[in-house]
UniProtKB/TrEMBL annotation, chain A:
Source species: Cercophora samala
Source species taxonomy: Eukaryota, Fungi, Dikarya, Ascomycota, Pezizomycotina
Recorded catalytic activity of this chain's protein: guanosine(34) in tRNA + queuine = queuosine(34) in tRNA + guanine
Binding site for substrate: 132-136, 186, 230, 257
Region (RNA binding): 288-294, 312-316
Name assigned to this protein: Queuine tRNA-ribosyltransferase catalytic subunit 1
Automatic annotation (TrEMBL), chain B:
Single GO BP term: tRNA modification
Co-factor: note: Binds 1 zinc ion per subunit.
Protein name: Queuine tRNA-ribosyltransferase accessory subunit 2
GO cellular component: cytoplasm
Taxonomic lineage of the native organism: Eukaryota, Fungi, Dikarya, Ascomycota, Pezizomycotina
Keywords: Cytoplasm, Metal-binding, tRNA processing, Zinc
Length: 440, 476
């Protein structure tokens, strides 16, 4: 059994000793000071570190304003957050959301984006945008894709016509979109891919494609290009990829290829292996992560940014995310439940009716219209986005107050009130960074 | 002319309706009038005006915060059939709306269950607008309604009890309507006679029963000729105006209003709510000219679903000199010509959708079938209609309404464009599935995208290189 006071080493990972010691020495020096680093279009300011785990609180200043990390970024796939007006999204506190390059490339298309003057203007969103490269569609539409050194060949899901996405095309599209954070095109494989040679090829190709992306990026002074660490579940390959990517000095760093069905233990090992090697004064983005437990554990492992379609998608299926777990509002038990979606939640739907802006929405009304009127989906989307943003805000406040381990325990106790049935992967991962959930 | 409805019981002086000005001076045939309907605790409604039509307790696609912030609408129409379906999992559970607890922001169960902002005047009637035709007839004491889980009977006593519990500001007692006949056809005279007789009996029962004093009754006026329902209408005028129990009329076909002028003028001291479904602003103006005060306009929801942005004002602008013909009443934003148009949905509109967004974005949202497209169109279309009615009120006050109405007819197209865009998915409570051979294979909705994708993949075969096709390099 590990001693909860021992840091990352207790994950039992093979880590180069010198590097690890160096990093934790930095951490101790950092505890009470603010340190920042800038690149052309980004400033990263570390404002707090947990003295137990690797959790960090920071301020990221982007071309469209400041955002507080750790952060959850909701996904407005097609330049719209699933029925919410940009004004409503802003009211949830969101200042950084995603658009999907692949989808915007299809509709409205690059010509329209150029004519209108970029995606901010197109969708009336004056805060920050992050775009993926379009590469993730290689995983989600794998049957229709074929990867070569040149790029990815797709068959259009709309009419079956052949299309090609290269690093240069991805950059050109993201330059047209004008996103504050752009992602490199990477060769994504599901982490559970059995062919190790193919995995290495994908990792190495992703590094080569980063070089092509950097060369093709037209506006480094106003758009930030992030690299993406690949390497599947092979930790040595991940380390190698980290070294290569970090050497290219992008303003931010993403850990990619995860949330593709791998075991949670494996997921955590990859995150912790990467965060260990990444420079302290750059934002770290774990792509495609959205379950509340995953967010909290990933923050503890040293990650700062997350995105996922799950909170908004599950809202459309009638599911509410709460501190006690996910509640399916379509269930008969909620038909005559006149309480708010979540007691104590501060979102517009849930906040007490005597508070400013309260909508007084009940579970009964959501039940009444879930999967019927779109308004029920909009209201649950408002709630779920608020929940995710608020969870990260609370984590941030806890980190700054150096109360993060207590926050993590309280969070898990909300989900597992018996204090016993915590998932093993979370217990193990948190133990690795000094939090013992089972202590009581 | 100022007419206050003063019911006998002092606490029931809930509603006030004043006619402030009328177009009578413009000519004997013009009965258009300006008024104000005020209910305690609600935002007063300047008339002529319209109220929003809800579906299952909500204005389609618009959340309550957006209603409060971005719509000028002061009233909403609700149907009881949207709330009383029998639960399939729990047959014995009463409809949850009846037990919804109230609070200061939501003073009745209707407000608290639906989250309707309290400045909105609520009108609750039995059936949706437009109502889905029922194959089952009405009986002597009940009508057939269509819920999310199928057809049900609604008895006059159950309806009264529901209204007493939900306490809408305004309600319409049951009418014996023939909702199963195709639109535009009139019932046979035998059927029409029975409609009048039953509705007459039901209104007597209604007013003999105790009703919450905070609910005003608008009696239905049937879509049948005046001579067939004159007895019923005289009873309304002679018994229930003096008793103070009747606060307004819910007119199914405004063409009967001239007959009321001739035969029952006292009824016209009441506010007239139209439950007809005018299909364009010309029809609305004609009904205003007849004397309609408040409209329910299912048209707006349908227009938004069709991807149309309303584009008309009253009085009509002078037609542009270059204009080859009448101006369109709406812009079909699904058309590809709007893909890069960064102008507001309609010129000079100041609604939220027009000030924060542009045609190009709404076009994209419709193409991508993103729900926000319909939300922005709802906000815009309700704003255009609000401005239209403000224009109508000012025109009547100026005494130029008839002239401007005729001009409007000349300047604008006679019909709405159809809208080429794909509508939102239809839900079970919005239509009745049709059996029979001619409907076999016809689906109301397109298959879900996964199925389409699977079909596309199958059609493309496994040929990853797309042999024989011209390869496009960019439009990923």
């Amino acid at each position: 059994m590990s001693d909860p006071t021992v840091d990352s080493g207790s994950l039992g990972l093979l880590v180069e000793g010198r590097q690890r010691i160096g990093m934790w020495a930095t951490a101790r020096r950092m505890a009470s000071t603010t340190k920042s680093a800038s690149s052309a279009a980004l400033t990263f300011e570390l404002v707090g570190k947990c003295s137990t785990t690797r959790a960090r609180a920071s301020i990221l200043t982007l071309p469209h304003g400041q955002v507080n990390l750790p952060i959850f970024m909701p996904v407005a796939t097609q330049a719209s957050l699933k029925g919410l007006t940009p004004e409503q999204l802003e009211a949830t506190g969101c200042r950084l959301c995603l658009n999907n390059t692949y989808h915007l490339g299809l509709k409205p298309g690059q010509e329209v984006l150029d004519a209108v003057g970029g995606a901010h203007k197109f969708q009336g969103w004056n805060h920050n945008l992050l775009t993926d490269s379009g590469g993730f569609q290689m995983v989600s539409l794998l049957k229709l894709a074929n990867v070569t050194e040149e790029g990815v060949r797709f068959l259009s899901p709309h009419d079956g016509s052949p299309m090609l996405l290269t690093p240069e095309h991805s950059m050109s599209l993201q330059n047209s979109i004008g996103s504050d954070i752009m992602m490199q095109l990477d060769d994504v494989l599901v982490t559970t891919h059995p062919d190790k040679a193919r995995m290495r090829e994908a990792m190495e190709r992703s590094v080569r494609w980063l070089d092509r992306c950097i060369a093709a990026h037209k506006y480094p002074e106003r758009q930030n290009l992030f690299c993406i660490i690949q390497g599947g579940l092979d930790l040595e390959m991940r380390r190698e990829c980290c070294r290569e990517m970090v050497a290219r000095d992008t303003p931010g760093i993403a850990i990619g290829g995860l949330s593709g069905g791998e075991a949670k233990d494996d997921f955590c090992k990859v995150v912790v292996t990467c965060t260990e090697q990444l420079p302290e004064l750059k934002p770290r983005y774990v792509m495609g992560i959205g379950y509340p437990e995953d967010l909290v554990v990933s923050v503890a492992l040293g990650a700062d940014m997350f995105d996922c379609v799950w909170p908004t998608r599950t809202a459309r299926f009638g599911n509410a995310i709460t501190k006690h777990g996910v509640l399916n509002m379509k269930r008969e038990i909620y038909a005559a439940d006149y309480g708010p979606i979540e007691e104590g939640c501060g979102c517009q739907c849930c906040r007490p009716v005597d508070q400013e802006g309260s909508l007084g929405i009940t579970r009964a009304f959501i039940h009444h219209n879930a999967a019927k009127e779109t308004v029920a989906a909009h209201l649950l989307t408002l709630h779920n986005v608020w929940y995710q943003l608020d969870l990260m805000k609370q984590a941030r406040e806890a980190i700054i107050a150096d109360q993060f381990p207590a926050f993590v325990k309280k969070f898990f106790d909300g989900l597992y009130p018996d204090g016993q049935s915590y998932p093993d992967w979370a217990v193990n991962a948190l133990r690795g960074v000094g939090i013992e959930l089972l202590d009581g | 002319m100022t007419v206050d409805i003063e019911p006998q019981e002092p606490e029931s002086t809930a509603m006030r309706f004043e006619v402030l000005s009328s177009a009578l001076k413009e000519g004997a045939s013009a009965a258009a009038r300006v008024g104000r309907l005020a209910l305690p605790g609600r935002r007063p409604i300047d008339t002529p005006n319209f109220i929003a039509v809800t579906s299952r307790g909500t204005l389609p696609h618009v959340t309550p915060d957006n209603i409060s912030k971005h719509l000028q609408v002061s009233g909403a129409y609700f149907s009881l059939e949207d709330f009383v379906e029998k639960s399939q999992q729990n047959l014995s559970r009463p409809p949850p709306i009846f037990s919804a607890p109230t609070n200061p922001n939501h003073p009745t169960p209707l407000y608290s269950f639906t989250g309707t902002p309290s400045h909105i005047t609520t009108i609750l009637a039995a059936r949706r607008l437009p109502a889905v035709p029922s194959p089952i007839g009405n009986s002597t004491k009940s009508i057939s309604i269509f819920t999310n889980t199928g057809f049900q009977n609604l008895s006059t006593t159950d309806y009264l009890s529901a209204i007493s519990t939900l306490k809408p500001d305004i309600t319409v007692p049951l009418a014996d309507l023939t909702n199963n006949s195709p639109p535009g056809t009139s019932p046979t005279s035998k059927r029409a006679l029975r409609m009048a007789e039953r509705t007459d009996e039901w209104i007597v029962d209604w007013f003999n029963s105790p009703l919450s004093t905070s609910t005003s009754t608008f009696a239905p006026v049937l879509p049948i000729p005046y001579p067939i329902q004159w007895e019923y209408l005289s009873r309304l005028a002679e018994d229930y105006i003096p008793s103070g129990q009747l606060s307004g009329l819910a007119v199914h076909d405004p063409d009967i209003i001239p007959d009321l002028h001739s035969h029952q003028p006292t009824l016209l001291s009441l506010p007239l709510l139209s439950l007809s479904n005018p299909s364009n602003p010309h029809h609305i103006l004609r009904h205003v000219a007849l004397g309609t005060d408040i409209f329910t306009l299912p048209l707006i929801n349908a227009v938004s679903d069709a991807g149309l942005a309303l584009d008309f004002t009253f009085p009509a602008p002078p037609p542009p000199p270059s204009s080859p013909g009448p101006l369109p009443l709406a812009t079909d934003l699904s058309l590809p010509s709007f893909s890069t148009s960064v102008t507001p949905l309609s010129e000079n509109c100041t609604c939220y959708a027009c000030s924060a967004h542009h045609k190009s974005y709404v076009h994209h949202l419709l193409q991508a079938r993103e729900m926000l497209g319909w939300t922005l169109l709802q906000i815009h279309n309700h704003a255009v209609m609000s401005a239209f009615f403000t224009g109508v009120q000012e025109s009547i006050r100026r005494g130029t309404f008839e002239k401007e109405r005729l001009n409007f007819g000349r300047v604008y197209d006679s019909e709405m464009p159809a809208g080429v865009g794909e509508r939102p998915r239809m839900r079970g409570y919005q239509y009745k599935s049709q059996g029979g051979e001619e409907n076999a294979g016809k689906k109301k909705n397109k298959p879900a995208w996964q199925k389409e994708l699977a079909a596309a993949a199958a059609a493309a075969g496994d040929g990853g290189d797309g042999a024989g096709k011209v390869e496009m390099t960019m439009p990923i």
